[in-house]
Amino acid sequence: MKTRITELLGTEAPIIQGGMAWVAEWHLAAAVSNAGGLGIIGAASAPAEIVREQVRKVKELTDKPFGVNIMLLNPNAPEVAKVVIEEGVQVVTTGAGSPAKFMADWKAAGVKVIPVVASVAMAVMMERAGADAVVAEGAEAGGHIGSTNTMSLVPQVVDAVKIPVIAAGGIADGRGMAAAFMLGAEGVQMGTRFVAAEESIVHENFKNKLCKATDIDSVVTGLSTGHPIRVLRNKMTKEYLKLEQEGAPFEELEKLTLGSLRKAVMDGDIDNGSLMSGQIAGMIKEVKSCKDIISGIVSDAEKLLKI
Ligand code: TUI
């Protein structure tokens, strides 16, 4: 499957991994890259030196291209932005804001920049700022989301920009990939599918919960605070949504979610943890290797697209 995305990234498949906080660490990133996709280290809230270590570990495990995702709400984002240049990282994806102020330095260093956007306006702004491609992420996705769904967002972004578009949100098999291509996308980004990868360091309890989830098991918390986050329903979300309905102040809500992603991913606390996951969780029934995930999706999509 050759598209402008495989050409830009130098990967075999036009598939990139989401920059999921805690989940997207060096084991997973290297496994996705070695399987022919673009593995991504999620810098999330990590200090810059930790990101540097992660980058070096991926380099030890693969000669294939990989990238770093910079979460723009991270106060360390300016330092992480420098580390990716110093370490010669080839691709940066960004989330939860505009990376415009870092763009000139990245472009000057030859870093390929792929902002994740949740609206047409942000996609156009990123193209003007020099982005090489955009990820158009619909609200089916896990974690921090916008409000437009993938089916509506992707074709509108494709029509609004000339740079290639990668679709995200609700994609976990060949049918999803083929559908995204019919909407004009030239690549896909997947997060939830890789949470349940063999090589993902996510606690077994979280992976089991994901494999048992149904189509209606995710909810969106934080609509009242301006930080909507899609997660699997559990004890924590029940309390959170009740508090939100009662108009609880931000500080009280924050107490419930502080450190909750770590609890889910590392400790396997499926009751109190934040089980960030997309709506497609209901379709994911088993843990598979990154190689099986990527080769299966590509061959199914090729059949459907008659490539
Ligand atoms: O970034 C994500 N997903 C994430 S980041 C994250 S860590 C986090 N934890 C707690 C609270 C907040 C974040 C978990 N999941 N996806 C990419 C994405 N970016 N989705 C939506 C956006 C986005 C939103 C607004 C991109 C740009 C944007 O621009 C607003 C502006 O005008 O700056």
Structural write-up:
With about 300 residues, the chain is of the alpha/beta class. The protein has helices at about 5-10, 25-35, 50-60, 75-85, 100-110, 120-130, 150-160, 175-180, 190-195, 205-210, 235-245, 250-255, 260-265, 290-305; strands spanning about 15, 40, 65-70, 90-95, 110-115, 135, 145, 165-170, 185-190, 220, 230. It has an eight-stranded parallel β-sheet with strand order 1-9-8-6-5-4-3-2. Strands 7-11-10 form a three-stranded antiparallel β-sheet, with helices on one face. Strand 4 (about 90-95), helix 5 (about 100-110) and strand 5 (about 110-115) form a beta-alpha-beta unit. Helix 2 (about 25-35) packs parallel to helix 3 (about 50-60). The longest helix has 16 residues, at about 290-305. It binds ligand TUI. Ligand TUI binds near residues 97, 122 and 143.
In short:
The protein has 307 residues and is an alpha/beta fold. It contains 14 helices and 11 strands.
Mean pLDDT, rounded to whole units? 97
- In total, how many beta strands? 11
The CATH H-level superfamily of the largest domain is Aldolase class I
Number of domain modules:
2
What ligand molecules are bound, each kind once? Answer: ligand TUI
> What percentage of amino acids are in beta strands?
5-15%
Which sequence of strands runs across the widest sheet?
1-9-8-6-5-4-3-2
Low-confidence stretches: none
| The top level CATH class name of the largest domain | Alpha Beta
Q: How does the overall form come out from the CA principal axes?
A: globular
Tell me the distance between the termini.
Answer: 8 Å
Helix content: 40-55%
Write the element-wise H/E pattern from the N-terminal end onward: HEHEHEHEHEHEEHEHEHHEEHHHH
DSSP helix count?
A: 14
CATH architecture name of the largest domain? Alpha-Beta Barrel
Biggest sheet layout: 8 strands, parallel
What structural class do you assign from the helix and strand content?
alpha/beta
What's the Cα radius of gyration?
18 Å
